[in-house]
Amino acid sequence: MIHDARLRKRLDLPLLILTYLIATLGVLIVYSASYGQTGGFHRKQLMWIAVGTAGMIVAIWTDFHFYSRFAKPLYLLNLLVLAIVSVANLHSAKNGAVRWIGIGAFQFQPSEFAKLAIILTLATFLKKNLNTIKKPLTLVASLVLVLVPAGLIIKQPDLGTGLVLFAIWFAMVFVAGADLKHLAALFGTGAVLFTALWITGIWPKPFQRQRLLIFLGLRDDPKKTGYHVTQARIAIGSGGILGKGFLKSTQVQGGWVPERQTDFIFSDIGEEFGFVGCIAIVGLYTGLIWRGVRIIISADEDSEGKLVAAGVVAMLAFHVIENIGMNVGVMPVAGVPLVLISYGGSSMIVTLFAIGLLESVALHRHQLTF
Q1: Which sign, positive or negative, has the C-alpha torsion 30, 33, 35, 38?
Q2: Which residues pair with 98 in a beta bridge?
Q3: For the segment 161-181, what is each residue's pLDDT rounded down to a tens digit?
Q4: Residue 227 phi, psi (nearest 5)
Q5: Could you give the CA distance from residue 259 to residue 36 in angstroms, rounded to a whole number?
Q6: 64, 360 in Cβ contact below 8 A?
Q7: Cβ burial, residue 153 (10 Å; 0-12/13-18/19+)
Q8: Which residues pair with 106 in a beta bridge?
Q9: What is the distance in angstroms between the CA of the first residue and the CA of the last residue of the chain?
Q10: pTM higher than 0.85, yes or no?
């Protein structure tokens, strides 16, 4: 805990302001995207923000070095819960994907919390192995830590979250000083393995294969598998420069865009606020990520803090790039929410806690715990 008032001055206020500005806009956008629907999505989103804020406060005022003591049990617990989701009858099936465990009225998504477990686990592992990170064995060992939970998540199937874990791993080992030649070799090995799985038909699943082929322009879309992206692009394009105005979307509120308050919520931003609104949202996210990068730089002499911050920034950046990219058709559809804006309890809670970790790094870098 922080006992020195001088440490409180290290709190990154711009990061907090940007976080809650985006989250507040997110509530308004969720309200608009779900306008006319039952469910009170915007009210639930406010509740998730409140719960996430409590988690953020805990993360901020707890020295992030403290978590290294529990990295191993946290990692194993997360694997256990992911395994339960995959093999036990303790889940809810939505859209053909088994990802949720019901806890009362709350649908808990373990794959979201896997991001935090991986960030803290890798930070602990890489800190202990900084002197050998340029050796292939250490690099592969760090990758194995990610492969196991990522495999369980992709099996659900949830390719998007699985890819987030790999983005986190890449950023953290890069910051740790991994040899670029070794990273390139692993990337090449992964490409060969993916090709072999594709040819044999083992993976990816048919609908994922279809989406990728359509995205690459290698197959026509007679069954309208790319319907989501097509409708999202139509909605964004119809907004023009300034948009149609708040609560005045026709494509989104008309029900043409599926998953309109979650994965494809950016289409509502484009339709109602136009190109200007889209650029403004991208600018806010750019500012948020830049504040995270500044924290990485400021923690240069604290290897664990630098690694934790790198993992959080990679997580945020991947979500933003992939979600906006798939909405405008320049990235394949992977079911990744737009952090702080898309409706969802698990995502909001994890994102706010992760930003709390960034603030903790800013506050507690160079501090020792016993």
Answers
A1: negative
A2: 93
A3: 999 999 999 999 999 999 999
A4: -60, -45
A5: 15
A6: yes
A7: buried
A8: 103
A9: 12
A10: yes
